[in-house]
Amino acid sequence: MPSQPAWRYVSHVPDLITEEDYEVAHQRKTVRIRVTVTGTGVEILADSPYAKELDTLLKQLGVPVIERMLCG
Amino acid sequence: MSEWLAPSGVTHVQKALFAESIGNGVVACHVCPRECHLGPGQTGRCHVRHNVDGVLLSSSYGRPVAVGVEPIEKKPLFHAFPCARTLSLGAAGCNLTCAYCLNAAVAQRGVDRSDDQRPPEAIVEEALTQGVECIAFTYTELTTFVEYALEIADLAHDAGLRVVAKSNGFLLPPVVSRLAHCLDAINIDLKAWLPDHHLKLTGVPVEPVLETLQLVRRLGLWLEVTTPIVPGLNDTPPELDAMADFIASTLGRDTPWHLLRFYPTHRMADRPATSPSLLMRAADAAANVGLRYVYSRDVPEDRLRHTRCPECRDIVIERGHDWTIRNKLNHGTCQRCGTQIPGVGLAAASH
Hints:
The longest helix of chain A is centred in the C-terminal third of the chain and has 10 residues, at about 50-60. Chain A is built from two helices and four strands. Chain A is an alpha+beta fold. In chain A, a hairpin with a 4-residue loop joins strand 2 and strand 3. Chain A is globular, with a radius of gyration of 13 Å. A two-stranded parallel sheet of chain A has the order 1-4. Chain A has a two-stranded antiparallel ribbon with strand order 2-3. Chain B is an alpha/beta fold. The longest helix of chain B has 15 residues, at about 235-250. The interface between A and B is medium-sized, with 18 and 32 residues.
């Protein structure tokens, strides 16, 4: 079982979900992911209207740190 | 006063404001309408106000959970200091228990060892170092860290900074009055209109929020209102009409109303996110009662992001998702027809 990731709150995270995704959000739970190989490792950018599913997925991937924006 | 160690291991020494000793070691907290009566060793519903040996202490003082530089438009505040960058911060805790809270991880808990430690002076120093124009109290409910916020606001104004806030509005009038004198603008949530809907969403009645909105308007603090449109709850035409009518008739047609998307999360993960078409329907309801400034950053084609002159319909402030692209106002007026646009700091920020 992967250990719990650390949470970090940041001012900006790019959007991957589009307005069209929200129009059909009642029909399916879309999660969009972009994986980038960087000089120091792998960066996963993920976006979804369904934060719980996203958190579960990232935890299962064993990411050490999750950065997210706060509302407000 | 002796130092006290909370269950989380955080030390607390800040005496709370708006507290009253009511005998037998019990203190009453008069920040919000819950008015918690706390016996020795008890903690308020907000998680961050504690009775320690008969004295009310605030554990959120000087302990922000997040501090970052963000545009003022993200709060959202659209008619206050456009283009301004804010040093945004919030501390742990909240006096509401919103079922859909996106920030529950920090709002529905007390202060933790991992939270930052920054006295008010350090926050203002950081704002000056970052070169921002404003400090914004946001992310969680500012009244649960009201002592911290008031001291920061005083220091910030002395340093020439503006101070703005986001609030859930569930406050007692003396707190509202105190805040109105140390803030430059505020955005307050009206999360639902029907009493049972507001209670279901937030855990508290709506009436005190309505009173706060009216008091803020009377006190002259610049006010904008935000409503999350929750599918299947507060999205019916009668409820949307009632909220729009209250804002227009009681707070004034010039009050900006922000319509936000609901995201399925926390205890409301079972319903869909708000669709753009539903947000547009809510905006139509607002327009029908004569509200002049209705916004939603969550609809396509930027239809509800810009400020338009209510007379000639020219775009006077052009925005991206949550930032100002161009402020075209001329000393707060429409360049094309000269109509005054309501707000605060509209002229000073033009560029």
